[in-house]
Structures are given as C-alpha cells and as structure tokens.
C-alpha cells in the first residue's frame, strides 16, 4: 500500500452526523439501495469525465474504456465499487464527503420527526447518496484521484460514520474512485456475487455504461485459480434510446430514482422521440413529493442534457419554464453542439422550439394524470400547486391549459381542500351565470365566513375561496377561463348580471335612492377613512362590509409588497351597509351626531376585522365600544 502523507482527522458537518444516524435506522428495511446509490454516483462521475475529455482528451490517460466494477471479498467481508470517472481531489473529497451543501438542508433537518417510517420518506426526498454506504458498513474507505492530477495526488478517505473522518494523500496510479465497504457482521450477505448481480439488475440495469462483476469460475482440482475475468451484468444502453414497448414500468421507475436521486417512485412519466425538423429524445418525470428547495427559485433545477448520448450538463434549466422546475428527466438532442454552454442555450432558437414542445408535453402529462388518476393528482397538487400558480404569469401561450390544471377550495366544500377545477366549477354554475366568482383571504375560516358571501349563499352560487399567499397575484394574470371572466366578490360594485331579476335590480335602485341621506351622514362621519359609502347588494345578515376599489391592491398583494420592502400605494376602502339590518336602522334614526359618529366608526372597524385586516387605532375602537356598552347597561 502507498505511503500516506498529509494525514489529518476532520469532523463531519453537524447535518451529516444527523443524516447518518437517521439514515442507518430509518432505511434499514431497504438496505440494498446502498449499491444503487453508489453506482449512480459512479455513473455521474463517468459522465462528467466523458464530457470534460471532449476538450481535454489527455484526461483519459489511455483508459478510454469507461466502466464501473463491483467486486467482493467473502473472507474480508468487503464490497468494492470502482469507477474510472472524473475522480476527486483532496478538496473535493472533504467537500463532497464531509458536508452537505444542498439548498434546503435546514428545512430538511427541521422536518425530521424521529419516526423512522416518516423520516425514511423525508430522507428519500433529500437524496441518500454516498452516505447510504453506512447502512451496511461500519467502516468505509475511499481511494480516489481526479483526472488531470498526478498519480502522487491520490486521496485516501476513511470513516466509521460516527463523528469524524480521516483524509490523507496517497499514490494512486489510475484516475477515478474506489469505495471499499467493510460490512457489518450482520450484513455479510452482500459479499456474494449472486446477491450483488441481482441488485444491479434490479436497480441499475438502465445505467448507460458497463457495470462489471467478477465472472463466476472455479479452478479444476489441483490447478491454480484462473486469472480474474469480468463480465457485464447490465444492459449498458441508455434507457431513453430504447423503444417504449421494450421498457418495463419498473425500469422507468428505477431510472427516475437514478437521475432524480429520489427514494420514491415518480407519479408519472412521458417518454418521446421527436424526428423531423428537430431530432431529440426526452424522458420526463413528475415526482411524488416536493424537494425541500422547491420555493427557492435560485436553487439548481432543470433536465440532464445529453448531445448524441454524450452527457453535457446537469440542471439544464433552459428547456422548461420556471414554474415546472420540479420536473426531472433527460433530453438528448442530435441538433446541438457538444461544446454547448448555458449561455448558448439561453440564446439558441432550437432551444425555444424544444422548450415549447417539452412544456406542452409536461402539461399534457399532468392533464392525463388529473383525468385518469384524480387521487394521485390531488397529492400532486398539495405538493406542487403553489408553484403551478406561477404559470399564468410566466407562460402566456399556455395560460388556458395551466388554468385547467389549477385547483381551488370553494363554498361547495367544507374542509378547505383545494380540489375544485375551473371546469367542474363551470359545470355546476347557475343558469345564466357568465362569471367565475372568487374571494381571497388569509385563512380558509376567514373567507368561508366572510360577509361578502352572504348574497351568494342566499342565491346558491358557488364561490372559489383563495387563501394561498400567491392567489391575488395569480388572479391579476388570470382574466378568464373558457370565455368566462373572473370576478373578485370583495372588489368594486358587485353586479350579478342575469342572476339578479329585473325586480331585484329595480328594488335595489329604489332602496339606494331612499338612503342617500344616510350615505352622506356616514361619509361625513368617517371622512378620510373611506373612499366611498354606498348601500350594499352583497349583504343579507351583516350590517356592513368593506369593499376594495376596482383598481386597488387587496390585502395579500399589499403584504407581499411590504414584505419585499416595496412602497405600497395608498388606497381607501369602500364602506357598504345593509339598509335592512337593525343596527343600520338604529343608526339611521340616531339624533345625536356624537353617538352617530361612534356607531359609524364601530361598524367600520368591525367590517375591517371581518375582512381580516388590522385596526389602525385599536384603542379608539375599544374606547367607543366600551362607551356604547356603558350606555346600554344604564
């Protein structure tokens, strides 16, 4: 063995320690995935070398036959995974094997519960990778050298997976990485050729380069053991290049776990080959769960890009819009250059055509999932719904298609679940209804009990209830669906169109005319607090509400702007009152202007609270209310 120099002992990052402990216990029931994860990493390392060698052919160092080898030693109880890929430098090994630099790490750690079953799902979402080796091994050694470095710059990394690791510089003649797993006493079943072959066939058959295992051969009696021979145990062909009819669902699922670094099967996938003006293959997947960095728009995202089956880059984000950043997959083009860069991708007209086609393919896949597997789509929406709501603003060409995939809570439900599609809403619409009515707010309880819904309940008209923070922003880009325009029931002067009879309209006009004096009195009392006072057509039970001006920002948008440090334009609400309510009748008959003012302000503040707003002067509200209570008790 080579002499070790520059040997030092370093501590794992805190998150790595936690992850190791939880993984060893939570994933114990599916131990064999360690081999899938390590082969997947080796495959990535070979892909990276193949791409780098396009401009640095000397990095191949005569070893142009790229492969992965898996071997074992029954007596020593070891399993070894070796590749001749890109390899690691000393700094690479410290960074990649001692820390987790993944965005979303803090959220991941915060969500761990200590419940092994639940945590196994979370760990799967996060990706288990190299550390899965410690599920079966009580010591792991890594021997590696980065391509292009001298043989004397090899690295030996070793750890027992507890709190620290050792790292030293060694001689290593060949580039690439060799990982030696020293199996735990109870895991020696893996030091077996038949067992390892089966795991490779089960999880890694799709890997597009040879995975070799020692050929089973026995020496004749009295003869020396023959020289070690190797045999390829996987198909070693790129999955996406094979005809769909030849690929089993299990193969598609395992390939997803390989490229998505996921532990769970995908919800759906779409495999296509395009020929003609453009030639490319694509294999796109919808994950079952959201990654922890889904809402970090700057986090790495995108498809794996291959050019003529040569890996070019990870996270090529130019092929799908940002609102579809959760999609995983591969695109393999015959039209792009092998030296393509991210900058070139952003300007290439070929990419625009591919992006348009791939986006439609994803939306078609989601439509199919929603139609054929509504329960699965419900799960998809819980995980990715808020990201899909970014779509109408980003993707004008597919706005109607995206709108059809959106799901909302409504007054038809009673639990706040977002399950109602716009098509279902319109199918249940009242005869003569030419609008889609909605209400935004902070919580489901707040919007469900809002006074703005009173006239809709009376007439049996369904209203969509929007409580995600992004919803008001979404609706500013979503003007209509299937020819029907959207109406915010808390905004402007509510007009129910054909849903109000001519008699009702005439009666409303007469009532408004008769209350002109009261309107002027309230306006004088509330002064600058309101932009307008008017008789309400929305109320049946409440005395008053606050409506938003047609062009004014709602509460959600105001909060978004304030949170981002932007100046919020001044606006004042519209005060609407219910002339048939006993409190309004009492107000109308009030002779004392002071008392009239107090009552008007109390009604205004109550309407603000009902809308989920905070009071500008809570002390004044309490003072007026206490004064009124004292007068009533006298």
TrEMBL record:
Determine if Phosphoprotein is one of this entry's keywords. Answer: no
| Positions of region (C) | 560-634
Q: Provide this UniProt record's keywords sorted from A to Z.
A: ATP-binding, Chaperone, Cytoplasm, Nucleotide-binding, Stress response
Domain named Histidine kinase/HSP90-like ATPase: residues: 30-187
The protein's matches in Gene3D superfamilies, at most eight in alphabetical order, are given as: 3.30.230.80, 3.40.50.11260, Heat shock protein 90, C-terminal domain, Histidine kinase-like ATPase, C-terminal domain
The family database entries (Pfam families) matched by this protein are listed as: HATPase_c_3, HSP90
The segment annotated A runs over 1-342
| One of the record's GO cellular component terms | cytoplasm
Task: Name a GO molecular-function annotation.
Answer: ATP binding
* Binding residues annotated for ATP, in chain numbering: 37, 41, 83, 88, 102-104, 125-130, 177, 342
Compartments, record wording: Cytoplasm
Q: Which domain of life is it from?
A: Bacteria
Job description of the protein:
Molecular chaperone. Has ATPase activity.
Give the HAMAP family listed for this entry: HSP90
Report the family membership.
Answer: Belongs to the heat shock protein 90 family.
PANTHER family noted in UniProt: HEAT SHOCK PROTEIN 90 FAMILY MEMBER (PTHR11528)
Assembly notes: Homodimer.
Q: What is this protein called?
A: Chaperone protein HtpG
Q: Which organism is it from?
A: Pseudomonas cedrina subsp. cedrina
